[in-house]
Amino acid sequence: MAGVAVKFSGLNDETKSRMREAGIDWLRSGIREFDQKRFFQGEKQPESFHLLKGTVEELRTLGFHLMGITPGPMDMIAEAGEIGSAEYYANYRRLCGFLGREFAGLIDYWQVANELDIWIFRDKLTLEQSAEFLKAGLRGLKDASKQLKTGINITLFPSKPGEVDGNTEKHEGVFIAKSIYQDPSLEVDYAGFDSYPGTWREGGAESWHEYLDAFHALVQNPIIIQEFGYASAGGMMTKEESDSGAFPCQIKKWRFAWKGAHTPEVQADFIAESYRIFAQKPFVIGATYYCWKDNTTCWQCGKSDCPAETAWGLLDRNNNLKPSYYSLKASLDTYFNGGVASKTEISDIIKEPAPL
Ligand SMILES: [Zn+2]
C-alpha cells in the first residue's frame, strides 16, 4: 500500500499520471463534500457529494485505491447531539455507517477520525470520550459492511511527555491505543500510526525501528503508517528559543531536525531511508506519505512564510517535482511490488485491495 495524502477531488490528468509514474497506488483523504447538516435532517446529500462519488469511481478505474477518513470531533455539528451523550455516539455510528454504505465498492479502507490522541483533533472531547467516539465510528463502518477494512490512527507514541505538543503524563497515544486494541468486542483490521521524527519530534528515519517494533508489540495488528514525512524548509531554533517552549509557527523555525537541517535534499534522504526500513518489517502493510504538494499557507497559523505546514510535499507550490518525488519513486521501485514504477498501467497490476 503505497499512498499519498491528497484530496480525492480536483486531481488533474498530469497529477494522476505523475502519481502513477511514481508508483503511488493509494490515496488518503477525508470526505469534505459530505454535508452533515443535511444528513442529520434526513435530506439528500448535495450535488458535490454525488460528484465526488463519480470522481472516486474514476480513480478506481485508473487503478487507485482509497483510504477514506471519517469526520472528527472538530467537524461534528450541534445536530449530532450533546457531546458525550448516548445520542452523540449513536449519531456518529449512524453517520459512519452512511459513509461506508454510500461508498460501498469504492472505498474499501477507512480510518475513523484522525489522531484523537492530539488535543487539536480531539477538540472538546476528553480522552475517554475520544475512545468512545472511535469505537462508535468503527462499529458504524462494520454495520455498513463486514467487508470494510477499518482502523484508527495515533501519533503520540512512544509517549514522551513534554517533547511533543499535547503529550502529557496522561500518555494520550498509549491510552487511545489500549482502549481500541485491547477491547475484544471491537473489530479492527489495522493499526494506523503517524509519526514525524526529525520534524515534529526528536529523532530521524532510524527512529522507525524503535517506534514500529514497540507499536506493533502494543497493538498486535498489521500497521499502516497513515502519515509520515519530512519538511523541506525552515531554519533551526537556537537553544534559547527551543528552551522557551516556542511553537514552530510562532518563530517560524523548527525545534528538531534530522541530519541537522530541513532542506529538499535531507527530505529526499529521509524518504529513502524510511521506505528502506518499512520494507524490512513484514507487519507494516502500507505507508502514506504526507503530503503530495507544498501548501501556499500554513494551516495552523495562516502565514505563507511559515515552514510548519507548507513544505512537506513531493511537489513545490508551483507544481515542480522536488527531490522528494524522485526519492519516493525510486524507493517504491526498489523496495515494493517488484518495480511498480517501471510499469505503465498500475490498474493492470492491482485489481483488488492488498490482502491483510
Ligand atoms: Zn505556521
Features:
356 residues; two-stranded parallel sheet; 8-stranded parallel β-barrel; alpha/beta; binds zinc ion
Write a structural description.
With 356 residues, this protein is α/β, with parallel strands linked by helices. Helix content is 37%, strand content 13%. The chain has helices at 13-22, 36-40, 47-61, 86-102, 119-122, 127-144, 172-181, 207-219, 239-243, 248-251, 264-278, 323-335, 346-349, and strands at residues 2-5, 26-30, 65-69, 109-111, 149-154, 190-195, 223-228, 235-236, 253-254, 284-289. It has an 8-stranded parallel beta barrel, surrounded by 4 helices. It has a two-stranded parallel ribbon with strand order 8-9. Helix 6 runs parallel beside helix 7. The termini are close together. Zinc ion binds next to loops.
